Structures are given as C-alpha cells and as structure tokens.
Amino acid sequence: MNISADTLATMDPPTETAAVPKRSTSYAKDKAKIQARLRRMEGQVRGVQRMVEEDQYCVDILTQLSAVIAAARQAGLLILDDHIRGCILGTCSHGHEDQEEMLAELSSAIERFTRTAS
C-alpha cells in the first residue's frame, strides 16, 4: 500500500492509546545466528514443498518436516534465552511496572512456546 506525502500530511497523529510495538536488543549479539537459522529453515521448507510437488515418499517428507520443526525450536530457544538474560535479568525498557508483570509475561511466553514447539 503506497501512501502519498499529501495523504500522510493530512492524517491524524497517532493517539496515546495507539499500540507501540515493543523493541528489543536482548538478542542483538545472536541476531546474525538467528537470521542464519531462519534462512536455513526457509530453504528446508522450500525443499519440503519441492518434495511434495515431486510426489516424494511420505516418510522422507516427514523426516524433513521434523528437521524444520527442530530448527524452529532451536531458534526459539535461543531467542528465549536471550530474552531471559537481556530483558528479565538485564535492563530492558519495555515499560514493565514491576517484576511480577515481567514474570507473568515470561511465563506466558514460555507456555506459548512450549505448547507449539513440543
């Protein structure tokens, strides 16, 4: 969607209640490693698509899907580890009021991740 400069100039500014995306640098030291893993996963998924297009054996496709899931789990664990070290133990500024709020957010994130990654 392209918005002209004139349209942007006449738009109302964001209100106070507008959601501001949270930014984090807790994974900054591992960002290149995370991106490499995600690109590798992307290639694996394309390979699985190609296998399906070529009517490859089901068990071989399942084996490759298992590798994609394992790669996603490893990338997620790295991000989670960085979040714990940088945001929970460190000094991130995500506007948490207190430690209980921060721990509740962490518990929720771990629950979502383990539900989808297991």
- How much of the polypeptide forms β-strand, as a percent range? under 5%
N-to-C SSE string, H for helix and E for strand? HHHH
Q: What would the principal axes of the Cα set say about the shape?
A: elongated
- The first-to-last residue Cα distance is 37 Å
Describe it:
With 118 residues, the protein is mainly α. The protein has a domain at 31-91 and 98-117: Methane Monooxygenase Hydroxylase, Chain G, domain 1. Helix content is 67%, strand content 0%. It is built from 4 helices and no strands. The chain is elongated. The two termini are 37 Å apart.
Write the SSE topology.
Layout: H1 5-10, H2 31-53, H3 58-88, H4 99-117
For this entry, give a set of tags.
mainly alpha
Explain briefly what this protein structure is:
It contains four helices and no strands.
